[in-house]
Structure formats: C-alpha cells, structure tokens
Amino acid sequence: MSEIKACIFDLDGVIVDTAVYHYKAWKRLANELDFDFTEEANEKLKGISRKESLALILSWGGVDKTDAEKEELARRKNNWYVDMITAMTPAEILPGALEFLQALRQSGYKIALGSASKNAGIILDKVGLTSYFDAIVDGNLVTVSKPDPQVFLKGAEMLRVEPAACVVFEDAVAGVESALAGGMKVVGIGSRETLGGANLIISGLHEMNLETLKKL
Ligand code: BG6
Ligand code: MG
C-alpha cells in the first residue's frame, strides 16, 4: 500500500456547487426545445464534457440536430452558465473545502485539479482558490472524458506522484470510475447508491480531515 502523497479534486460539485448551475442551464436549453429531464437523469451529465452532455440531452428529448446546430446550442448553454459563474464569490466555496485545502498545504501534500470543465480557470479565479493548486488539469487539456482516467493520470504526472499515492475527490459516477481506472483511491461525495465503487463516501469535504485521508 502506497502512502498518500497527493489529492486530486474534481471541481463542479466538490469544491463549488456549480453542478447546480450546469443543471439549470441544461434544463433551460431542454425546456426551450420543448422537453424536460429529471434531476436523476442529470446525474449522468456530471463529469462528462459539454459536447457529450448535449448529445445525451438531445437523445433524451428525441431531438435530432445538425453539427452546426449542436454547436450553437452548446454555445447558448455555455453563455448562460458563464453568466452564472462570473457572478460567483468565495462565499460559494462548499463547506469544508477551503479548510481541507489549507490543511493539505500545511502538511505538504501536493494538490491538483482534475476537471472536465473548460471553465475551471474562471471559477477558481472567482472563488479565489487558484493558488492552492500545484497543477490544474481542465477540459482544455484533456482529449478523452471521464470515465477514461486521462484527466487524473495527467494530474498525477504533473505533480510527479505515482497514481497509487493519489486520492481523488469526486461527485460524479463517471469521475469515480475514472479514478479507479487510473489506479487511484477515490472519495465519493454524494450517496452510496450512486457512487458505490468509491473507497469512502462522504456528504461533503466538511467531513474530511487528514486523519481520515491517511487511513484510506
Ligand atoms: C464537469 C461537469 O465538471 O464539466 C459537467 O461535471 C460539465 O457537468 C463538464 O458538462 C464540462 O463543463 P464546461 O464548463 O466545459 O461546459
Ligand atoms: Mg463534479
């Protein structure tokens, strides 16, 4: 068993509650196209790219669009989403996230971001957390989406830490699978029913501390 040396965090739904903003923007788009989707269906959108999310949503609505129309729809959704995230402040950091990042830093752990979002940089900047990360891997750097392990393996590589010595924090089914496929430990943020494969399930980073981390 390797000693834990690094933590890799998903962003949306783990450090900030932007998963809700993604949901609102996709729902608005679906409603404009005259259909709706449930919060349960929304779970499938967590962790996957904008393009793949749109393809799933259109398939749920039974709607066919050309590539050019899809691009326009994704652009429209992203504009609404960006309007919401540019208004974010540090008050929107989820409970316990800042405290846990500070504790990790003080104890010499390496920290990376592993997010599918192309907007991760703006969000970290708005909430004032950019300086906590030794490496930032976002949707602009990856070529394949979670559940492929690429995003987290890239993070581990940039931190120069072997995957087995990394713990990933994830709220998405695809993200938990991605971390496990990369040979990392994973803490699921959410419910046991959705994130079954994780090594530990917590409801938020306020439940996390260095002692629990060392026992993983
Ligand atoms: C992930 C979210 O973090 O980023 C997904 O969980 C989202 O819901 C994906 O689709 C891509 O985000 P963006 O900001 O590039 O549209
Ligand atoms: Mg997430």
Task: Explain what the structure shows.
This protein is of the alpha/beta class and 216 residues long. 44% of the residues lie in helices and 12% in strands. The chain is built from ten helices and six strands, in the order βαααααβαβαβαβαβα. It has helices spanning 18-32, 39-42, 50-61, 67-85, 97-106, 120-127, 150-159, 173-181, 192-195, 210-214, and strands at 6-9, 110-114, 135-137, 166-170, 185-189, 200-202. It has a six-stranded parallel beta sheet with strand order 3-2-1-4-5-6, sandwiched between helices. Strand 4 (166-170), helix 8 (173-181) and strand 5 (185-189) form a beta-alpha-beta unit. Helix 1 (18-32) packs across helix 4 (67-85). The chain is globular. The mean pLDDT is 96. Magnesium ion binds next to loops.
